[in-house]
Design a protein that fits this description.
Layout: H1 3-23, H2 32-54, H3 58-83, H4 90-130
Helix pairs in contact: 1-2, 1-4, 2-3, 3-4
Length: 131
């Protein structure tokens, strides 16, 4: 593989991670474009996680795979919660939904930070090996 390809792959991974971090916010106004960006960046990061797993970088692949799946899993959970709120007091429901959003954001920021560290390390190593 050419050395500049490693730099491009690491940079593309950081761009996909940035796009995922922008559109994975739970209160983001989700339109069709944001769902497309979420899906594309999640698929790209999922593939990068599988590649990292094949390269025997298990911890890095765990963070990348988790980061790629957490937003999509939360969207399904959010739809399930909204569909099954019959018989619950609206104030209690809103409070419980806020707790779910706080927990999601805590995990999301942790996974995004770890994933950013993985990709910054990859970019550093690619630039170091290029020179």
């Amino acid at each position: 593989m050419f050395l500049y390809q490693n730099i491009l792959i690491a940079a593309a991974s950081l761009i996909a991670l940035y796009a995922l971090s922008i559109v994975s916010a739970p209160l983001y106004p989700h339109d069709l474009l944001s769902y497309f960006i979420l899906g594309a960046s999640s698929i790209y990061l999922f593939i990068r996680g599988i590649i990292l797993n094949k390269q025997k970088k298990r911890v890095s692949s765990m963070f990348v795979l988790g980061s790629s799946l957490i937003a999509i899993v939360f969207l399904f959970e959010y739809q399930y919660i909204l569909a099954n709120n019959q018989g619950i007091d609206p104030a209690v429901f809103k409070q419980n939904l806020n707790h779910a959003i706080v927990v999601y954001n805590a995990f999301r920021f942790f996974f995004l930070a770890m994933c950013a560290a993985v990709f910054i390390k990859e970019l550093y190593e690619a630039i170091r090996d290029f020179a």
